[in-house]
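Case study 2.
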Amino acid sequence: MKVYLSVCFVFFSLAGMGGGVAGAQTVASAGPKVLSQAEVLVFDQMPANKTASGGESRNLQHGALTTGETVALHESMLPVGSVSGPQQHVIQHSELIVVREGTVMFEHGDKADKAGPGDVIYVAFGTMHRLRNVGDAPAKYVVIAIGGDTKK
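Prediction:
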């Protein structure tokens, strides 16, 4: 079965529409791949990388929008009871995390919020965080990283 991450491609398509940002400049070709054309990224064609917790991650896209922002997109699966890292980590970019399946606890600083299918988690620049699968099935989610250190 092919899974299309259409919710995320709307984000990439906005750059190709040229709307919304007055005076935007085109990203130099010497930097990251310029995401200037709308496209469908077929999930089944993306290689899966196994994680130490028994989960997997697929890097789906990385580049720069024509409006200048760098973006990276990956899909991850966390097995029941596992966490996205051994401890909370600080990010130097912003993230939108779209929960596709399962239930996760978004641990950020000294707070924790539960999120399930269809929920979107916003992780602000500089936020210490991690996800924990608190459900009874694998959790799948898509991460859209924007700006900051996504230039790497």
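The chain has a mean pLDDT of 81.
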